[in-house]
Amino acid sequence: MIETLQLFLITYFAALAGVIPPGLVNMTVAKSCVDKGKRSGVLVALGASIIVFIQALIAILMAKYIFTHPYVQKMMLRAGLVVFVIMGIYFFIEARKEKTKVEASKKSSAKSFLKGVMIASVNVFPIPYFVAISTAFNPDQGYGWLNITAFSFAAALGTFTTLYIYVISFLKIEKHTKSFSKYSNYFMAALMAILIIVTLVRIFADG
Q1: Per-residue pLDDT for the chain (207 aa), expressed as one digit of tens each?
Q2: Do the beta carbons of residue 94 and residue 181 sit within 8 Å?
Q3: d(C-alpha 115, C-alpha 42), whole Å
Q4: CA–CA separation, 113 and 139 (whole Å)
Q5: Comparing C-alpha atoms, which of 164, 137, 165, 172 is closest to residue 151?
Q6: By three-state DSSP, how is residue 105 classified?
Q7: Separation of alpha carbons 162 and 13, rounded Å
Q8: pTM (predicted TM-score)
């Protein structure tokens, strides 16, 4: 039980810290919060956190295999590279359009949740991250389902905690978010460009 609690706490804080730097998911949450309000931001965060739960589950179940097969990691990175290129083009095109703000509705709430699911699904970086965390706990001995569940839930909860902090933070500086809202698509396109560069570096660095 102590081992499970230790695994939960370390994974929780690792996931919490991992989402702090500006990235695809947290900037999408911030953008949704600014454009459509707190409810939309929270729903994006919730959708993303559910996917993180699944990613962490995959990571801990396949930790030994992925960790000992760099080819699998490289293929994941290449898939992510293609997605980032496509999304970068999309955000740049959206930035060139003039759009009016649409009031939130039940339909837009569902779209916000699905946006969180989609954004987190194409973001492949958490899986190697959680693989590295899980291998620190001697994966050769394997994990029981209690530890597997605790690990995955801690990853999702830690992610949601940081994303919710992003929502609250952007609401507190609401008066200063007009510029962010106006240029958010350009910002997201630039972020995609950075992620493309980082992914390319990782692919070539791993040989």
Answers
A1: 777 888 899 889 988 888 877 778 888 888 888 778 888 999 999 999 999 999 999 888 887 676 666 777 677 667 767 766 877 787 778 677 655 444 444 456 788 899 999 989 888 778 877 877 777 665 555 678 888 999 999 999 999 999 999 888 877 765 555 555 566 667 767 767 877 787 788 777 765
A2: no
A3: 11
A4: 34
A5: 137
A6: coil
A7: 10
A8: 0.74
Domain parsing of the chain, residue ranges: 2-79+104-178
Q: Residue type at 95? A: A
Which of 46, 64, 202 minimizes the C-alpha distance to 124?
202
- Both structure tokens of 204: 């070539």
Tokens representing 145 are 């389902």
| Cα 82 to Cα 199: distance, rounded to the nearest angstrom | 10
Q: How many CA atoms lie within 13 A of 135 on its CB side?
A: 14
